[in-house]
Design a protein that fits this description.
The complex is a heterodimer of chains A (492) and B (292). Chain A is an alpha+beta fold and 492 residues long. Chain A contains twelve helices and 20 strands. The longest helix of chain B is centred in the N-terminal third of the chain and has 42 residues. Classes of the chains: A alpha+beta (492), B mainly alpha (292). The complex binds protoporphyrin IX containing FE (HEM).
């Protein structure tokens, strides 16, 4: 690929007289292809990507829970207005409060992926040819003017010199192929000739990872507030047919105070049949059928019972108090009685808080109409003492804990891992197993033979050393009559 | 064991400071000597050569090299003792990571010291290491037990160990780039030749980039296991991405557009700035609420 080093700057469109303007200098598809494969444009895009990411770090980013709701977003925006003053509107219009989903960010990433794909596709045939069918016969000029050259005069005849050369190359891990051209024998020696394909892998990986990210963003589901009161079973939904029962939850602490472990004993049901049990811990999520259950949070729960006036039980299970009131003094849980058209909030003081209105051993029920905010009744219930609100008899049975899980199905993750593996393998191959090609020509000479050696690698700082080492090995193997190497591009 | 580890860190700090002082003395005496010899040498048509690459350092510089190796030994011991005492890789809090980061910089520095038979890059690497070590003395070195999210020994070790290699490499690349910019004339001096510095900084990036990539990938795997999301654009993740992108740009500019020397050096310095931002940004920018 050395030609790109010396390649002239990409041609600019010449300034043409007005009459000529109707005929563009470059057909548009050629122009677009040039831009797509232009390193200069790619560098600018990478720079833009870095700046945008930096903006995403330094500027407040609207949480995703807010961006989907206009009213909430407006409220969020006014909460950051004091920080950005007159810039708020401009930053908002530019999408810089959601940088990573902004058109700038997505456009840049898209451009880069198309660019690396185009580059890879264009380069592939050349790389393939270089690796599999190199040009064998090189000119004398090549052996004189390449950046790295050496000349050895050997007393061995051509055949013996070739054998020595082969041995020396093989010893250094090179694969040798030869071709006779008149009196001369041309040698092409390669090490790691598949190395450059690591670059293709690294480039393609970028697109694979991106596809994975798109799959993550558009498919699957993620439920971050899946709270199960201990002893209850809850359906996962999303068409999975899965339900989870929490047998127990334990939070343990080190003597000095910090948390040691959060563990839930879970039983997983598929279509009502238990299929799996597991101790679910942070860093040890339960996985089944592509759905993963992460131990995430925990808190208090209350077991509630609701009965109709005829005594029929319409609700009897735990309610996780997993929400917080605005003043952060109360824990709130919620359940619905669809047949009665009611939704019920269960409010208790948070642990450590004291609320004179809700004494210990009691909880407050707020019953609303399911479709609007009309309260049907608010009442404080003592444990075990039923109360009737909106025609329903509620009982606060007892207190419990709930375990909070994140339940996620991410169809993109596997794709991302494949891309990541490609990226890492590609990178290590490119950097640590770089293709090295050294050529030689053997010519019968007076009293033996003459060996010319040359290579054109310019980039890698370690190459001169490798070349030097090779030449020394060849000189040693090819025997006496050796001359000092001519200084090529090799530095001392 | 913890106590022992701390003594080793302390000895390491002393050794680093001694090495740095020796190197600075070596430079200072070289300046004086050069002022005397430069005229004679130039008038006789020769170039001033004192200690160029390939020669063994003498005097103060030799002592500096010795103490550099010593400091590496002390810090290695400190990390090993700490790992034994805590039962996990010594990477779990700011104290441990700072010591490990300094160690990484010294290891990569030692590698390039041997490889290019030069020591001058240490003049910049050592202050970086010293800064990290001094910083480590200001944060708690207590052996706090691991909170649940950190309880994944394999990933904790792999993720941070690769980061230590990557950041160490970038620190050395940064040092070589700075020296490159300082060594304007490339006249014989204690500074290695510009060409060597340019090569060295590039090779440092060739180590740093794959290891940074590995760090990010391992971090994503861990995030997926611990939080169920392989990427969530938190500031540290984003900062590591900035580092990755800038380094990617550096490598491409160099490989495909032939950027060498000055421009490449400036980009590499930017990469190291991004590394520092990545690891210590939440301290400097603590006032910005994005670092919640
Ligand atoms: C993920 C972001 C990347 C982008 C946007 C990108 C973009 C590009 C572009 C546009 C080119 C020029 C097309 C060509 O000449 O082949 C290129 C070339 C190249 N890329 Fe990347 N690349 C990326 C990642 C990588 C990685 C991870 C590696 C490391 C292995 C890499 C190594 C190379 C090399 C060695 C070249 C060839 C330069 C030449 O042919 O002279 N690239 N890249």
């Amino acid at each position: 690929m050395s030609h790109t080093v010396t390649a002239p700057a990409p041609p600019r469109l010449p300034r043409e007289p007005a009459a000529e303007l109707r005929r563009p200098a470059l057909p548009p598809h050629v122009w677009i292809l040039r831009k797509l494969t232009s390193m200069r444009v790619a560098l600018v895009a990478l720079f833009v990507l870095a700046v945008l990411t930096l903006a995403g770090i330094l500027l407040n980013q609207a949480p995703s829970s807010v961006t989907s709701n206009q009213a909430a977003y407006a409220e969020w925006l006014s909460s950051v207005r004091p920080d950005y003053g007159g810039w708020t509107g401009i930053l908002n219009a530019l999408g810089l409060f959601s940088v990573f989903s902004s058109i700038w960010f997505r456009g840049t990433v898209l451009f880069l992926s198309v660019s690396v794909l185009t580059c890879s596709v264009r380069r592939f045939p050349g790389l393939w040819r270089t690796a599999t069918r190199p040009r064998m016969v090189m000119t004398d000029a090549f052996f004189e003017r390449a950046p790295h050259t050496a000349r050895i005069v050997s007393e061995k005849d051509q055949g013996a010199a070739l054998a020595a050369l082969r041995t020396a190359f093989r010893k250094n891990g090179f694969r040798v192929s030869t071709e006779r051209d008149g009196e001369d024998i041309h040698v092409c020696a390669d090490r790691f000739r598949w190395g450059p394909f690591g670059r293709i892998a690294a480039h393609v990986s970028f697109v694979v990872i991106l596809l994975g990210a798109v799959a993550t963003g558009t498919g699957g589901f993620r439920d971050e507030s899946f709270a199960i009161p201990v002893g209850d079973r809850m359906a996962v939904g999303h068409g999975t047919g899965l339900a989870v029962e929490a047998k127990s939850f334990v939070d343990s602490y080190y003597p000095s105070g910090p948390p040691r472990a959060y563990e839930s004993q879970l039983v997983l049901y598929k279509n009502g049949v238990p299929v799996h049990t597991q101790e679910d811990r942070v860093n040890h999520p339960m996985r089944y059928d592509g759905v993963t259950f992460y131990q995430s949070y925990f808190g208090p729960a209350v077991v509630m019972r609701a009965q109709t006036s005829s005594g029929q039980v319409i609700f009897n299970q735990g309610v996780a108090l997993q929400y917080e009131s605005q003043d952060e003094k109360e824990s709130i849980g919620r359940f619905e009685l669809p047949q009665q058209g009611l939704k019920v909030f269960v409010v208790s003081p948070r642990s450590g808080e004291i609320d004179p209105g809700i004494p210990a051993g009691s909880t407050q029920l707020e019953v609303y109409d399911i479709d609007n905010e009309t309260p049907a009744g608010i009442q404080v219930l003592s444990q075990g003492k039923p109360a009737t609100i909106a025609g329903v008899r509620f009982t606060f049975v007892r207190e419990r804990e709930f375990t909070g899980l994140i339940v996620a199905h991410d169809p993109g993750a596997t794709i991302v891992w494949i891309g990541a593996a490609l990226l890492v393998l590609g990178l290590f191959t490119t950097f640590y197993f770089p293709h090295r090609r050294v050529r030689a020509v053997l010519r019968p000479g007076a009293g033996g033979s003459e060996i010319g050696i040359a290579a054109i690698e310019r980039r890698h700082p370690a190459f001169p050393g490798l070349f030097e080492h090779l030449v020394q090995d060849i000189r040693r193997a090819a025997g006496q009559g050796a001359q000092p190497p001519r200084e090529g591009g090799a530095d001392a | 064991m913890l106590r022992l580890s701390q003594y080793c860190v302390f000895a390491g700090i002393v050794a680093v400071a001694a090495a740095l002082t020796s190197y600075v003395l070596a430079f200072a005496s070289d300046r004086v000597a050069r002022a005397h010899t430069v005229f004679a040498a130039e008038s006789s048509g020769g170039t001033v050569t004192t200690i160029a690459a390939g020669e063994a350092p003498r005097g103060a510089a030799a002592f500096g090299t010795l103490t550099t190796w010593l400091s590496l030994g002390f810090l290695s011991a400190a990390l090993v003792f700490r790992a034994i005492a805590t039962g996990h890789g010594p990477f779990a809090n700011m104290y441990e990571f700072s010591v490990a980061f300094a160690w990484g910089a010294l290891v990569i520095n030692a590698y390039f010291m041997r490889r290019y038979r030069q020591w001058a890059v240490g003049v910049i690497v050592l202050p970086v290491a010293l800064g990290l070590l001094l910083y480590s003395t200001t944060v708690s070195s207590a052996d706090e037990p691991l909170v649940p999210a950190l309880q994944n020994n394999l990933l904790l070790t792999a993720h941070v160990a690769t980061a230590v290699v990557a950041y160490g490499a970038f620190a050395v690349g940064f040092a070589a780039a700075v020296l490159y910019l300082l060594n304007r004339e490339d006249r014989g001096s204690l500074l290695p030749k510009r060409q060597l510095l340019d090569d060295l900084s590039y090779r440092a990036a060739l180590i740093g980039f794959p290891f940074l990539t590995l760090t990010i990938v391992l971090g994503a795997i861990w995030a997926d296991i611990a939080w169920g999301k392989y990427w969530s654009w938190d500031p540290k993740e984003s900062a590591s991405l900035v580092t990755w992108v800038v380094c990617c740009a550096y490598l491409h500019a160099r490989a495909a557009r032939g950027w060498r020397g000055q421009r490449a050096a400036v980009l590499l310095i930017a990469v190291f700035a991004a590394v520092l931002f990545c690891y210590y940004g939440n301290l400097f920018f603590g006032g910005l609420h994005s670092y919640g």
